[in-house]
Amino acid sequence: MHMFSTGLKAAAVAAAGLMLTAAPAAAQWQPDRPINIIVPWSAGGSTDQVTRVVAPLLEEALGTEVVVVNQPGASGSIGTAAALEAPRDGYTWTANAIANNATYAVTGLIEDTSIEDYRIYLHVANVPVVSVNVDAPWQDFGELLEAMKNEQITIGTAGVNSSGGMALAALREAAGEDFSARMVTYDGGNPAVIAAASGEVMATTQLAVEQTEMIRAGRLRALAVLSDEPLTVEGIDPIPPVTQWLPDMKIAADYFGVFIPVGAPQEVYDTVDQVWQDVVMNSTELQEYASDRGAVFAPSYGEAALEVAMPVVILEACARVDRGEAVIDPSEIGIDCAAQ
Known about the structure:
The chain is of the alpha/beta class. It is built from 11 helices and 13 strands.
């Protein structure tokens, strides 16, 4: 059984350790035109939210406009492919959960790609939450599981390759045959959450950062966080861990960030490394966003970022094989499922 959410304490400890990484070489790049960050999901979702917190920090540090461009579709693969197809000059980046960029080739959504196509800059770790419409009869996750034995529950997500879609697949795998749910897909996490709040679907498994406003407003009832410990967010009752009902579910942190395709001049990466070290890793704005929305402030970059994120990359790629969703063997992009 595979899962990709966050052990919140582990993510925080990892972030603290990574903030001690030595600063890179002196920054050299001076952009002479705007930088585009393609968010391959609709406005208001988890990737869009945090990217719009990070973009002004980058804009001020780099001295040029940083434009967030929403280009949703096909579980984030359309916008991601557009970033990969753009000139490798350092002016087109993308943003996402790292497991998506690392595994698009496994599911056949983008051919011949892997995480090696990017320089990695991570900022927060996110965690999915199972929530139901406030008028739904289920008061805890155990009641929802019991209901699924007798009726098909509709679950709103941003698609099979989204965090919500992967969470739903992992729940189905952990719960076994009794988990009866029909996924209803939307162009992003925000519309999926709105659909659950409005009653268009019965529940959602999207990320906490996408749900906190609706939970605070009493439009959604949070039943479980896909973690091994409770989630505490200001203004919301502690959300119990899913392991209270599914104790064998495996957990790995779900890291989000921005990614610059490889092939640009080295000075681009050296400069952004410096900005990440000096600005993003010390950002009070990003820390406040994480605290308010139920994310973990966990910035890192380069090889250190890849090291902390590989557990979710491996678990998600190998879960695709277990669920029969893989088009290629993960070993073709350097992921060894046999070692897990």
